[in-house]
Amino acid sequence: MSEIDARAIISPATRLGRCVRVSAYAVVGNEVELGDGCVLHPHAVVNGPARLGRENVLHPFCSVGGDPQDLKYGGERTELVVGDRNTFREYVTVSRGTRQGGGITRIGSDNLFMAYAHIAHDCQVGSHTVFANSATLAGHVTVEDYATVGAFSPVHQFCRVGRYSYIGASTVITQDVPPFSKVVSQRETRCYGVNTVGLERRGFSSERIRAIEQAYRLLLRSKLNTTQALEQMRATLNGSADIEELIGFIESAARGLTK
Questions:
Q1: What is the pLDDT of residue 187?
Q2: 141 and 158 in contact (C-beta within 8 Å)?
Q3: Label partner for 240 (CA 20 to 30 A): which of 5, 35, 149, 179?
Q4: What pLDDT sits at residue 185?
Q5: Confidence (pLDDT) at 186
């Protein structure tokens, strides 16, 4: 049975699943669906149209499903679609899509959005990602599964962040971040190698990690240009699904590659 505090504001057009908890002063707007077991802490806000799956937790003062921050937005109907078991901490903001961007902002499952993180219009976020405090995505960004975006790190419009990658704190991302990599800003933003610890935590075998490390040595530390490095990867590391993913990602980078 759901628990709805009498001081919460819930639109009659809201659809609530089973065992939903809505605390005092939380607000649920029109055309919102909350799946079974969702929890809204005091002052959390969900605007629609938005569909949230099961067991999502929204902490105080987060705002999910708000209008896109885009000057072209004219009030047209756009959506937010969220999977299961996501955590939205204090002051997180998530915008719905825009007509120009396909109309849907989409978030997968089992993600952690720490305080003040921002997911802009038309972003596509996978599952099992971590957004540290004040990590921000501009519009139309794609973040693939198991990626981590560090604190105070903005990601430019239309960039992609590959699977299992790790963006260090205060790193400005203006180009695609390849899968399995660590990217951090010091004097300049560059790729420092393989996200070894993250891959080990996700169950990658030592053989898989060694193959990825060999690929990154060719990409970053040899005297080969990117095209030559990819040819060497194919010649010497053929048959690895991880290397094929890395090669495909690099070859399809529309904004260049962080190296």
A1: 64
A2: yes
A3: 149
A4: 87
A5: 75
Mean pLDDT across the stretch 206-211? 94
Which residue in 139, 150, 162, 198 is the catalytic one? 139
* Cα-based angle 234, 240, 242 (whole degrees, multiple of 5): 100
Q: Which one of 41, 43, 118, 121 is the catalytic residue?
A: 121
Cα-Cα-Cα-Cα dihedral sign, residues 151, 128, 205, 211: negative
118 labelled catalytic: no
Exactly one of 97, 101, 122, 242 is catalytic; name it.
Answer: 122
3-state class (DSSP) for residue 148: strand
Q: Parallel, antiparallel, or unpaired: how do β-strands 3-4 and 189-194 relate? A: unpaired
DSSP 11-70: -TT-EE-TT-EE-TT-EE-TTEEE-TT-EE-TT-EE-SSEEE-TT-EE-TT-EEEEPPS-
User: Which domains are assigned to the chain?
Assistant: 3-140 (2.160.10.10), 199-251 (1.20.1180.10)
Q: What is the rounded distance in angstroms from the CA atom of residue 146 to the CA atom of residue 21?
A: 28
pLDDT for residue 188? 73
Contact 247, 179 (CB under 8 A): no
Q: At what angle do helices 206-216 and 241-251 cross, to 10 degrees?
A: 30
Whose tokens are 């955590």? That residue is: 87
* Total residues belonging to the chain: 259
Please say if 139 is a catalytic residue: yes
Over residues 69-93, the pLDDT tens digits come to 999 999 999 999 999 999 999 999 9
